[in-house]
């Protein structure tokens, strides 16, 4: 059996998914503001299927896109973690870092705090040599988190193969962080 990795920060727990996460996860995936940089909000069935995939991958690997909850009170706030993308991307194979938080939790540094814990797992426990992040060009909030994490933007953009060809969200930017850069200049939030 694979040992689960469940990092904690001062304010957050990154953990395996629970059945009780499905409702709040579906609500954030149905929120048009949360999903404005994705092709469409998710239906309840699609949201549940995503949570199931996240849970299964964590059970298989010990890590993945973790459910994130507040340490004080235990409220589910979204997901943050590491993933091996299934799409055939121009820079595959790779491990990506990603996040999605419910709107009430925006603007508090929680995505950066949880993502810093995920990067620590990737570089210090999984011994990855590099981690990438990518998003639609116009997703300034996520790009700001990538910058705060110390990730470097690539000069090139790419067309995400899972986004419809006629979507204004198809063009994506890529950010990278090497283990050497991580160790040399850790983010301020650590």
3D structure, described in words:
By secondary structure, the chain is an alpha+beta fold. The protein has one domain (12-184): Gcn5-related N-acetyltransferase (GNAT) (Aminopeptidase). It has helices spanning 22-30, 44-61, 110-125, 140-148, 179-184, and strands spanning 12-15, 65-70, 76-83, 96-101, 130-136, 152-159, 171-178. It is globular, with a radius of gyration of 16 Å. The model has no long low-confidence stretch (mean pLDDT 95).
The CATH superfamily is known as Gcn5-related N-acetyltransferase (GNAT)
Q: Strand order within the widest sheet?
A: 1-2-3-4
Q: What structural class should be given to the helix and strand makeup?
A: alpha+beta
Major sheet description:
4 strands, antiparallel
Whole-number average pLDDT? Answer: 95
Per CATH, the class reads Alpha Beta
Specify the CATH architecture.
Answer: 3-Layer(aba) Sandwich
Entry summary:
This protein has 190 residues and is α+β, with helices and mostly antiparallel strands.
Which features characterize this protein?
190 residues, alpha+beta, Aminopeptidase, 4-stranded antiparallel beta sheet, globular
SSE inventory with pairings:
Elements: E1 12-15, H1 22-30, H2 44-61, E2 65-70, E3 76-83, E4 96-101, H3 110-125, E5 130-136, H4 140-148, E6 152-159, E7 171-178, H5 179-184
Antiparallel strand pairs: 1-2, 2-3, 3-4, 5-7, 6-7
Helix pairs in contact: 1-2
């Amino acid at each position: 059996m694979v040992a689960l990795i469940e990092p904690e920060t001062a304010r957050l727990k990154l953990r395996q998914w629970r059945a009780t996460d499905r409702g709040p996860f579906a609500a954030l995936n149905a929120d048009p503001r949360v999903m404005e940089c994705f092709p469409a909000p998710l239906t309840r069935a699609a949201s549940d299927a995503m949570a199931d995939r996240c849970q299964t991958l964590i059970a298989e690997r010990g890590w993945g896109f973790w459910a994130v909850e507040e340490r004080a009170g235990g409220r589910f706030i979204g997901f943050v973690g590491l993933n091996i993308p299934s799409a055939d991307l121009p820079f595959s194979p790779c491990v990506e870092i990603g996040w999605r938080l419910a709107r009430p939790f925006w603007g508090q540094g929680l995505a950066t705090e949880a993502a810093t814990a995920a990067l620590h797992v990737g570089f210090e426990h999984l011994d990855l040599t590099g981690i990438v992040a990518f998003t639609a060009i116009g997703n300034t909030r996520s790009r700001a988190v990538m910058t705060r994490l110390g990730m470097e933007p690539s000069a090139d953009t790419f067309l995400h193969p899972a986004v419809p060809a006629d979507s204004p969200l198809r063009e994506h930017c890529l950010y990278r962080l090497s283990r050497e850069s991580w160790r040399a200049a850790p983010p301020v939030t650590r």
